[in-house]
Prior knowledge:
Blueprint: H1 5-21, H2 26-41, H3 51-67, H4 72-83, H5 88-101, H6 106-118, H7 122-135, H8 145-153, H9 157-164, H10 172-184, H11 188-201, H12 207-217, H13 221-234
Helix pairs in contact: 1-2, 2-3, 2-4, 3-4, 4-5, 4-6, 5-6, 6-7, 6-8, 7-8, 8-9, 8-10, 9-10, 10-11, 10-13, 12-13
Amino acid sequence: MKGGKENAIKGRQALERAIEIDPTYAPAVARLADSYNSFLVIRYTEEWGTPALAELMLATAARAVALDPGDAYTHVVFGNALTQLGRHDEAVVELERALRLNSNDVDVLQIAAAILFRSGFPEKAVELGAKRMELDPFQSPSGFPSYAKALFLAKNYAQAVVMAKRCEPTNTSCILTRIAAAGQMCQAAAGKAAVADLLKLQPNYTVHDETAVMVVRWRRKSDIDHFADGLRKAGLPE
């Protein structure tokens, strides 16, 4: 399914209906937990960045693990949910479990990269992102946001922009990465254009809006400061 607010909401509703039919179907429960991540990191609704939704994501992911503890995807989604509540050490443990179960699942690798860059290991996240690209060079746009963020935090700004541009054009997470990377590369025109793209989708969005939801999710303050510095340099309002 393509990205964007409407499709994110439709996808979440479809998963909720599937679970009503069969509440023991672990793949649907895990996918529902993963869908909450989009609402936490992108301002689709008033649930954006809220502790209540993060707790719901964690509870749903824990339920998926209980239903199918031998599935790599359930563990990596559970790990991602833990990062939403700042429980990074536990998240990395779940990530490692997932990779032991299946280190070649492209969906697992995508989410694993998110756990790693949020937990302060961007270089390792880049390695998994590159592996995912090797396994699935024609992957859907949903595979690029975490890889782009990891590349940015590893200070590979140019490649971060390349990956961010492969996202859905409405994915504000990727637009923010483009803005921050342009700022760090002192590319004023590119930064201005990316800021304009963001503000069309999220009018009045500020640096503070972005950093406020990073505080718990990202382990290292230095990573938050690094990203915010790029946003400011590109001209995103404080």
